[in-house]
């Protein structure tokens, strides 16, 4: 069973270690060098920032990743999504789809937004394909938008609208995700 719970201060070291792992940063826009003090400051900021929501993804009560909605715009009813399954053994299709379905549920059913956008580096074709399979529309490509380790990467931009989510919920069977707000 996949569940989401709010990030707790006790998660910060785990998140920091995940986020700096080469297998994670390889497909992320940045390669941060994080500190526990910096993580605590980030945690303090997100506690009072209504434009972002972050959760720990749990599989059978074990933390396996992080899921986020950021840039939440309550006037235009849109946001961007992000996240990753950190534990390689948990990166199975079911968990990845459950994580993405959770982001869609949070954005459309809970926050009542109209649009969610996902941006994926071109070296992460597996996730780009999963987004389209899950009902997203690929809107375009930002050419050479990320420069990392001496190399440029394109960014694939995908989105889903509220009415597409509503239609997709009847097409795709999915297990309801428990989301702690």
From TrEMBL:
* InterPro entries the record matches: Acyl_CoA_acyltransferase, GNAT_dom, PseH
The record's Gene3D superfamilies line, in alphabetical order, gives:
3.40.630.30
**Keyword set includes Transmembrane helix:** no
What Pfam families does its record include?
A: Acetyltransf_3
What's an example of a GO molecular-function annotation for this chain? acyltransferase activity, transferring groups other than amino-acyl groups
According to the entry, every stretch annotated as the N-acetyltransferase domain falls at: 5-135
Keyword presence, Lipid biosynthesis: no
What's this protein's name?
A: Putative ribosomal N-acetyltransferase YdaF
């Amino acid at each position: 069973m996949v569940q989401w719970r709010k990030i707790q201060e006790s998660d910060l070291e785990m998140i920091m270690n995940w986020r700096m792992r080469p297998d994670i940063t390889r497909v992320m826009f940045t390669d941060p060098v994080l500190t526990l003090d910096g993580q605590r400051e980030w945690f303090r900021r997100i506690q009072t920032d209504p434009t972002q929501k972050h959760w720990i993804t749990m599989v059978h009560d074990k933390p396996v990743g992080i899921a986020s909605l950021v840039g939440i715009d309550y006037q235009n009813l849109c946001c961007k999504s992000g996240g990753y399954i950190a534990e390689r053994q948990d990166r199975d299709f079911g968990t990845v789809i459950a994580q993405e379905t959770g982001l869609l549920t949070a954005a459309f059913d809970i926050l009542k937004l109209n649009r969610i956008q996902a941006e994926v580096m071109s070296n992460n074709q597996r996730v780009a394909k999963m987004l389209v399979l899950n009902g997203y529309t690929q809107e375009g490509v930002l050419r050479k938008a990320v420069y990392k380790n001496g190399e440029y990467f394109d960014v694939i931009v995908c989105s889903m609208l509220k009415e597409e989510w509503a239609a997709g919920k009847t097409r795709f069977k999915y297990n309801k995700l428990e989301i702690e707000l």
